[in-house]
Request: fold
Amino acid sequence: MDEIRAGVDRQLAQFIDGRSEALIKIDPHLAPVAAAISQYVLSGGKRFRPIFAYLGYLGAGGQPSEKVLRACSALELVHVCALIHDDLMDGSDSRRNLPSIHKRFAALHSSASYQGDAPRFGAAAAILLGDLALAWSDQLLAQAELDGSIKERCLPVFYAMREELMAGQYLDVLAGAIADSDLDRALKVATLKSGRYSIERPLHFGAALVGAAHSLTKTYSDYGLPLGQAFQLRDDLLGVFGDPAVTGKPAGDDIREGKRTVLIALTMERASVSQRAEVTAALGDSELTSENVERIRAIIEECGARHETERLIEDRFQDAAGAIEAGGFPPEIASAFSSMAIIATKRSS
Amino acid sequence: MDEIRAGVDRQLAQFIDGRSEALIKIDPHLAPVAAAISQYVLSGGKRFRPIFAYLGYLGAGGQPSEKVLRACSALELVHVCALIHDDLMDGSDSRRNLPSIHKRFAALHSSASYQGDAPRFGAAAAILLGDLALAWSDQLLAQAELDGSIKERCLPVFYAMREELMAGQYLDVLAGAIADSDLDRALKVATLKSGRYSIERPLHFGAALVGAAHSLTKTYSDYGLPLGQAFQLRDDLLGVFGDPAVTGKPAGDDIREGKRTVLIALTMERASVSQRAEVTAALGDSELTSENVERIRAIIEECGARHETERLIEDRFQDAAGAIEAGGFPPEIASAFSSMAIIATKRSS
Reply:
């Protein structure tokens, strides 16, 4: 896995270096844009989507290939767009222990004593940098110079993935706005936002790079969909109980942002009337103190919603593990899929 | 030209209908997203970029083709992303006499009594709908099913166009923030934002769809760059002097937004010290009354900046016309290029 990750990092670095140079050649005033996006893309990230895509390719019998690594790395740029825009929409201040892009450019505005409103400048920069990353995702994919027939197979998967991502993001925002804490809806959003986008679609993308049989696509869904849901459920838990030093995000951010996660839906089902009223009042209150957050955490714990979410994760992890076992992959591939399942569900950041 | 425009409209309608259906199939809650983006894309717009691209193709000897019309229509979706995101960044309330996307979704939030902040919901929706349009631009281009060698020629132009657009947008926002009213900078931003993106690159894109000779690419630059600048200069004039009933945007919006246009740079060069102070104070003041705007208009007029901008447009129009004459195109193509030059520079919306 480390080798794949290193390969993805190498492809991204090469691409981003080229684009940064191009930007500065357009105008030297674009240097802060190039620097921000380079640091954002290259200073970490779990690279889940490219790694799953490449594993999907290897699992379908593909041979190690730099071109394919490049194609899979395009998925990371889609994700970079999603993160930059998501942080702006949520008003999140940090990501990967760095200021989020809108914060970074708002700070540039202040430190350079620019005119006008600093947050507004930061927001504009974040919108444009996210757009750039999204546009670049196609460019990197094109630079993989895949054969025509392979491209024909993998592009529909790539496009469906991006469409579902944006659809899922909208439904997520909508769920917060209609204060919908229905469990089925929360699971559906989790499936769209993560089940498909983060794992299943990347696996299918990798399979399409080989031209895999239908049965393999089904195995990938049997593994990827529950694992993707479990991945999102872990995210939900980290958004409330995560250690800020490890997650790189402030504690309890999901509560302040009013996210209608599966964890919250379970809490609403299980909490007492008075507890439910407390949680309802806290959700989306950006002024919440750390004591308030601590209180909501205690309710989520006491009513058993945290425990139940852990159980849902474990169930889905087992389903995913079973699908890999039944898939009859060569041992090293099966072991890579198992490791990724553990990383995706048992992570702390 | 009407035939080309109708062809572009047809291709866009067909594509957007398909994507709308796909969205609603993902989740019926996406119906407002599908409706908003359909109305936005299909209810007008000048279609400059697809038309220039298709003319670039015909001028290079290409034969009428639905596939090529489809490829050229992809440029309109890039533009839709730019408009949706630009309106959000600028805080513009309307576009094409319809509420801008962030306003539309903020209104949906209010009328449906959603929880949380309506403008914030509107902003999130505008970010995601713009992203969707940008992602769709590649998808529509892919659906044109161009031959491999043609794709290899036109994709670099397409990618460069998108990168320059976002670079130009950032430089535009930056110019407002550093309150830079330098004429050369304003012309450079105008060139990036419009000279290349709106006309020159679309022409080159069209030429690449045929595989045109270098000499034609040069002719297209000689026509497209000055015309693109003139197009942007007309935009600057309309942003200050335009009739809201015709432009579909509030009067004097560019002043309230603090845009550092060529028109403003010329005003700063020519106005008296006291006039300059008045203009400086007004730029970026979102609370400006219509009387204030009227006063700034009078200064721009009196100091001769409006007249000088008209002269710059006329000079560039003549350069563009000369390039077409020298290009030796068949009469009907030359006449189409001339008509487009008139539409681009003498328009009132």
Notes: The longest helix of chain B spans residues 148-177.
